[in-house]
From TrEMBL:
<dbReference type="InterPro" id="IPR029061">
    <property type="entry name" value="THDP-binding"/>
</dbReference>
<dbReference type="InterPro" id="IPR050771">
    <property type="entry name" value="Alpha-ketoacid_DH_E1_comp"/>
</dbReference>
<dbReference type="InterPro" id="IPR001017">
    <property type="entry name" value="DH_E1"/>
</dbReference>
<keyword id="KW-0786">Thiamine pyrophosphate</keyword>
<dbReference type="GO" id="GO:0009083">
    <property type="term" value="P:branched-chain amino acid catabolic process"/>
</dbReference>
<keyword id="KW-0560">Oxidoreductase</keyword>
<comment type="function">
    <text>The branched-chain alpha-keto dehydrogenase complex catalyzes the overall conversion of alpha-keto acids to acyl-CoA and CO(2). It contains multiple copies of three enzymatic components: branched-chain alpha-keto acid decarboxylase (E1), lipoamide acyltransferase (E2) and lipoamide dehydrogenase (E3).</text>
</comment>
<keyword id="KW-0670">Pyruvate</keyword>
<protein>
    <recommendedName>
        <fullName>2-oxoisovalerate dehydrogenase subunit alpha</fullName>
        <ecNumber>1.2.4.4</ecNumber>
    </recommendedName>
</protein>
<dbReference type="Pfam" id="PF00676">
    <property type="entry name" value="E1_dh"/>
</dbReference>
<comment type="similarity">
    <text>Belongs to the BCKDHA family.</text>
</comment>
<dbReference type="GO" id="GO:0003863">
    <property type="term" value="F:branched-chain 2-oxo acid dehydrogenase activity"/>
</dbReference>
<feature type="domain" description="Dehydrogenase E1 component">
    <location>
        <begin position="43"/>
        <end position="306"/>
    </location>
</feature>
<dbReference type="GO" id="GO:0000287">
    <property type="term" value="F:magnesium ion binding"/>
</dbReference>
């Protein structure tokens, strides 16, 4: 499933602005962007790709239990992340590394999670309202919808002030649309007219099951059955990702109800580093999407605007430094004490947690003095 007649595209695969009827309403959002903002789009896509590639290498070298590549999906993530306003709350799945970094999460936190040293806990308030990674497929759509209901009840949205009104955006993949949780989230969002944007990154593969087997129709049509307006975009076009997401977030925060965006992109790497995509997908498909690479097309666009070799060399150096920094700091990560798993279950001390911690300590102590036991 490649692009369709309904796909909103603002930047062609050759890096040229598209002036179609579908693009017309979104081009003003692009015209308002400064040169520095456009450079930030490119910088974040490149730097995150270089971190991503190095993290996959670290897993192959035994430094990580697993890595979840986002290779090829940088435009969908960077554009939508910059479209969100500071007060917005973003709920990820587990592949939104670029969004996490843009909203303030240090990538080493993601490395620690996938090294098995963290439950993934970071304080969303301290990290741009970016909530926790969710490995249970699709459940974050319910979390996001519930949160959107909450800010609605709090009166934190639909006051008419775009700089203050809050909205929610939730990321999920095409595989998640086959989960009941997503349908339930759409039901509640539509029923309560919540200020939430559902951002579907359709990367065409739910592990080894193609999207064409999951759905006989384009996924952007599905929300219409719930009464939710939707749009399909070229997810490898960072300008479309930014403009369409900004328009829909501002619409939903104004009180008109939920919105749905299907970003057509492609998972150029493996589902995770435990997967071998060569066993189930054709080389022709990969070639098509490689030609639509989000970074190379945006570089072509920036060069057409006058950006020179110096800027791109600077960004490449920044990306290499960021990847090198992760490689250095991974060796500084320490194994947390077992007691940490009980520390933040409740906000206050809890007798059940105290009892479980005491049992674990006694159990481990029972091995003291035995061969291979704990000292």
């Amino acid at each position: 499933m490649h692009y369709t007649p309904a796909t909103v595209q603002l930047l062609s695969t050759e890096g040229k602005i598209v002036t179609s009827d579908a693009a017309a309403e979104y081009l003003p959002y692009i015209e308002q962007l400064s040169d520095e903002q456009l450079r930030d789009f490119h910088r974040n896509m490149v730097v995150m790709r270089m971190i991503d590639l190095d993290a996959a290498n670290l897993q192959r070298q035994g430094q990580l239990a697993m890595w979840i590549p986002s290779l090829g999906q940088e435009a969908a993530q960077v554009g939508s992340a910059f479209a969100a306003r500071p007060q917005d709350h973003l709920f990820p799945a587990y592949r939104e590394h670029a969004v996490a970094r843009i909203r303030g999460v240090d990538p080493i936190r993601l490395i620690a999670l996938l090294r098995g040293l963290s439950h993934g806990g970071w304080d969303p308030q301290m990290n741009g309202n970016f909530h926790l990674y969710t490995l249970v497929i699709g459940s974050q759509t319910l979390h996001a919808t519930g949160y959107a209901m909450g800010i609605q009840l709090d009166g934190a949205t639909a006051t008419g002030d775009l700089e203050a009104d809050e909205a929610v955006m939730v990321y999920f993949g095409d595989g998640a649309t086959s989960q009941g949780d997503v349908s339930e989230a759409l039901v509640f969002a539509a029923s309560y007219q919540t200020p939430v944007v559902f951002f579907l990154q359709n990367n065409h593969w739910a592990i080894s099951v193609p999207v064409t087997k999951q759905s006989r129709t384009p996924l952007y049509l599905r929300p219409s059955g719930f009464g939710i307006p939707s749009v399909q975009i070229d997810g490898n076009d960072v300008l479309a990702s930014y403009a369409v997401t900004r328009a829909n977030l501002d619409a939903t925060r104004s009180g008109v109800g939920p919105r749905f965006i299907e970003a057509l992109t492609y998972r150029m790497g493996a589902h995770t580093t435990s997967d071998d995509p060569t066993k189930y997908r054709r080389s022709e498909e990969l070639e098509f999407w490689t030609a639509a690479d989000p970074i190379s097309r945006f570089e072509a666009y920036l060069r057409s605007r006058g950006e020179g070799d110096g800027f791109f060399a600077e960004v490449a150096t920044e990306g290499a430094d960021a990847a090198s920094d992760i490689r250095r700091r991974i060796h500084d990560l320490v194994t947390p004490p077992a007691s940490s798993m009980f520390a933040n279950v409740y906000s206050e001390p809890h007798p059940v947690m105290d009892a479980q911690l005491a049992w674990l300590e006694a159990y481990e102590a029972s091995f003291a003095g035995t061969e291979g036991g704990h000292a």
